[in-house]
Design a protein that fits this description.
The structure holds 2 protein chains of 2 kinds. Chain A is mainly alpha-helical. Chain A contains 6 helices and 5 strands, in the order ααββααβββαα. Chain A starts with a helix and ends with a helix. Classes of the chains: A mainly alpha, B mainly alpha.
């Protein structure tokens, strides 16, 4: 009976911790980005890279990665002061964008395709975007096709998480080894424990 | 493997323990002549008399030790590549993730490890509360533990500033701002702590010093003291009645508990690796992947999940000074637990009133954490205030609860 109660209290403890933690991730959103699968194929990523380096780079930087040609960080073509006076904000760096928003990479796709005709209540350069938390967005519509938007998302997801493939492959190996060791250690424990029963 | 209890017997007989004709025996003897090596290991690990009825809630202490080792090892490798200057810090973390061999893995393990450390610590502390581990003769053990909890808060706070992300910066700004609430000296004190009017380069440099020097040395000393205090009185157990160390209620720590701690520790690490490798962002605030910008406040400043209950207490009272007093009281009241609860019965599950009060306290902790993730407006503000009152009410009602329960026990005995 006491044992059962002990477990009950324990279960509550664990629930408490998880509930306390899950609260941290709940974020109020303008509209949840649609559930898309971000492409991971090289063709998409390369196409996305082309678009980012010809369109996005006009205003945004990717300063934590380097161009393979010049070995220099990608700087935006718009300087901060000009951006501030034209749009009221400095456009955010895009290197980590796919991990720096609650919606993750799908949010980028949603934002790029979420422009709406502005009924006139926005004073920002971009007008209304239904996935942007504030509603009115400073970034003008880059007028990308859905495919281009998807490719840009693929590229930015890759840039923000460059080790994804090796991370998952290593993780699977590490899990196999750790779980195997856990199993073995558990068997050892069971065997040791038996010797104490009398 | 040795027979059961042989390590303990060995410790008590004077006969030579090792075979002088074998290399291994000679090596051990060489060390033992000059250092109390096997004596120490016997006393504190192999032959440490341990209650045989410990359940899995008693596994979290050793788990905390394993997790601390993980943090120190990964922390060391991160420190070899990290640059503690506001113009370089965020970029150096990017270099670690992108260019340093296996850097992404070390970074993910360290970040995930901190969340696991807090989860294990909270379970360890709640176990101590549920089973009365803070009572005589383990009061000092509890006090040392509470000091380690405070050190852990400092470790988390100082470490969180280092990546120099948006949330790093603004969390530090908000938390150091707490000190401005102190009358008369508040502003000067805050400036002194930050090393400037706002969080900046001097703040980062001192957090590096705290995180790299003070925190590990502090833990090394306190862990040793905590273990020394534990081994002086011996481990408690779920029944709440201390065992007779000479009876068969006690077993040597090895092999039963080395085996138990090993498998359980490995299982938890399997879970930790799952998060670090497959969901590295799970515990992180996305805003922290944006470099700190002192001119742009994030829409919501929110601490990591493990600080949310205390964040709620800080914001429960819409008055800065009172909020700060509530926060500091909520932490320091833990220190007075042995004074507040004077009933000698340790196992809280056997106490007719305490067990319900403790259940309410657990639910209240969930509530405090959940409320902390929302802005303190409207219903959340009211709920936060109620949950804060319940938090303190639990502790402050303990003298009464223990007195009533003590009377109930006396009546039962009659």
């Amino acid at each position: 009976m006491t044992r059962l109660k002990g477990w009950l209290v324990g279960a509550v403890m664990v629930v408490a911790l998880f509930a306390a933690s899950s609260g941290a991730f709940a974020q109020e959103e303008a509209e949840a980005p649609p559930d898309i699968s971000v492409p991971t194929d090289k063709a998409s990523i390369d196409a996305g890279r082309q678009t980012v380096l010809s369109v996005c780079i006009n205003c945004h930087s990717l300063r934590y990665i380097r161009s393979p040609e010049t070995n220099r960080p990608y700087r935006s073509r718009l300087d901060d002061k000009a951006a501030q006076s034209a749009y009221g904000v400095v456009p955010p760096d895009l290197t980590m964008m796919a991990r720096a928003r609650p919606g993750g990479a799908p949010y980028i796709y949603a934002l790029l395709t979420g422009y709406e005709t502005d009924p006139g209540d926005c004073t920002t350069a971009g007008g209304r975007n239904r996935y942007f938390p504030a509603g009115c967005i400073a970034m003008p519509n880059p007028n990308l096709s859905e495919e281009q938007a998807l490719d840009v998302t693929a590229y930015l997801a890759q840039v923000a998480d460059p080790n994804k493939d090796i991370r998952i492959r290593t993780g699977i190996g590490v899990e196999i080894v750790t779980l195997l060791l856990t199993g073995l250690a558990y068997l050892v424990y069971r065997r040791v424990k038996k010797r104490y029963k009398h | 493997m040795d027979d059961l209890g042989s390590a303990q017997e060995r410790a008590h007989t004077g006969e030579p323990r090792f075979d002088p004709n074998r290399l291994r025996g000679r090596v051990y003897m060489w060390f033992d002549r000059q250092l109390p090596m096997t004596e120490f290991l016997d006393r504190h690990i192999t032959a440490y008399p341990t209650p045989r009825n410990l359940n899995y809630w008693w596994n979290f202490g050793s788990l905390l030790g394993f997790l601390l080792v993980l943090q120190i090892l990964t922390g060391f490798f991160l420190a070899t590549q990290y640059k503690g200057d506001p113009t370089l810090a965020f970029e150096s973390v990017q270099r670690i993730i992108r260019d340093v061999e296996w850097g992404w893995m070390i970074q993910a393990l360290h970040a995930t490890g901190s969340s696991f450390l807090f989860a294990a610590l909270y379970i360890h502390m709640l176990r101590g509360m549920a089973f009365g581990s803070y009572k005589e003769p383990r009061k000092l053990l509890w006090h040392l533990g509470v000091i380690m909890f405070l050190l852990m808060i400092l470790a988390a706070f100082s470490g969180y500033l280092l990546p120099w992300g948006q949330m790093s910066y603004w969390a530090a700004q908000v938390i150091t701002d707490i000190f401005t609430a102190i009358p008369l000296i508040g502003d000067e004190l805050t400036e002194w702590i930050r090393g400037g009017f706002v969080v900046g380069a001097p703040t980062l440099t001192r957090m590096v010093a705290i995180h790299f020097v003070l925190v590990p040395i502090g833990f090394a000393v306190l862990v040793l003291l905590h273990l020394a205090a534990l081994h002086r009185v011996g481990s408690g157990n779920p029944t709440g009645v201390d065992i007779d160390k000479k009876s068969d209620q006690a077993v040597t720590f090895h092999p039963l508990f080395t085996a138990k701690d090993a498998w359980f520790g490995l299982a938890v690490f399997a879970l930790l690796f799952a998060f670090a490798f497959f969901l590295p962002d799970f515990f992180l605030n996305p805003d922290n992947w944006i470099e700190a910008d002192p001119l742009r406040t994030p829409s919501e400043i929110e601490p990591e999940w493990y600080f949310l209950p205390f964040f709620t207490i800080l914001r429960a009272i819409p008055n800065k000074l009172l909020g700060v007093i509530a926060l500091l009281s909520s932490l320091s009241i833990l220190f007075f637990l042995p004074v507040l609860d004077r009933l000698r019965v340790r196992n809280g599950m056997r106490r007719p009133i305490f067990r319900w009060a403790f259940l309410i306290f657990l639910i209240d902790l969930i509530a405090l954490g959940w409320i902390g993730a929302h802005p303190p407006l409207g219903a959340y503000l009211v709920a936060g205030l109620i949950a804060t009152v319940i938090y303190f009410l639990f502790f402050l009602s303990l003298p009464l609860i223990s007195r009533v329960e003590s009377r109930m026990i006396q009546e039962d005995e009659r």
